[in-house]
Amino acid sequence: MNNTARKAYRKKIQRAILDNIKDRSSVRKNELIEKLSMDEGWPTPDIVHNVDLLAEGHMLEKDGDVLKILNLGYRPYEPLHVRMYLWLMDDFSRILSLVATSLSIIAVLSTLYG
User: Fold this and answer.
1) CA separation for the pair 22, 35 (Å, rounded)
2) What DSSP character marks residue 2?
3) Cβ distance 47 to 13 under 8 Å?
4) Would you list the DSSP string of 51-79?
5) Global pTM exceeds 0.85
6) What sign results for the dihedral spanned by CA atoms 43, 47, 50, 52?
7) 54-80 pLDDT per residue, tens
8) How far apart are CA 37 and CA 12, in angstroms?
9) Which of the pair, 106 or 17, is modelled with greater confidence?
10) C-alpha distances out from residue 20 to 29, 31, 48, 73, 112, Å
11) What CATH class has 3-69?
């Protein structure tokens, strides 16, 4: 499995985990693992690993063996610092492309009327 396929697979498992928890707002970890491994046919270690990754990313709260989504209205798939970084880089790239476009228009106009 190449890197892109692995990321897509992980994302799919994470979405299924979040969807299954969102239905009830909390779920027992063992029930969730059993349900996903039966319904989706995913290997149990992948599901356990992704549950732990989601909990580390502060989207799930582990209270013993009960998992809860922390903010039901908003379902991020990355930790907050990653989302902020991506948001800032997106704005920075827009500003940079706007500056580059402006400079190229100025260069063309100065060549035409120079």
Assistant:
1) 14
2) -
3) yes
4) HHHHHHTTSEEEETTEEEES-TT---SS-
5) no
6) negative
7) 776 656 777 777 777 665 444 445 566
8) 13
9) 106
10) 11, 10, 14, 15, 62
11) mainly alpha
Residue at token pair 């704005």:
91
Nearest to 58 by CA among 49, 68, 44: 68
The pair of structure tokens assigned to 94 is: 């827009």
Q: Find how far residue 60's CA is from the centre of its chain.
A: 13
Query: CB atoms < 10 A from the CB of 100, how many?
Result: 10
- Greater pLDDT, 44 or 86: 44
Compute the residue count for the chain: 114
Structure tokens at 39: 């319904």
* Cα–Cα distance for residue pair 89/78, rounded to 1 Å: 15
Closest C-alpha among 27, 29, 17 to residue 75: 17
Non-local (6+) Cβ contacts of 43 within 8 A are: 37
Contact call for residues 52 and 58 (beta carbons, < 8 A):
no
Distance between CA atoms of residues 33 and 89, nearest Å: 36
Q: Are the C-beta atoms of residues 63 and 85 closer than 8 Å to each other?
A: no
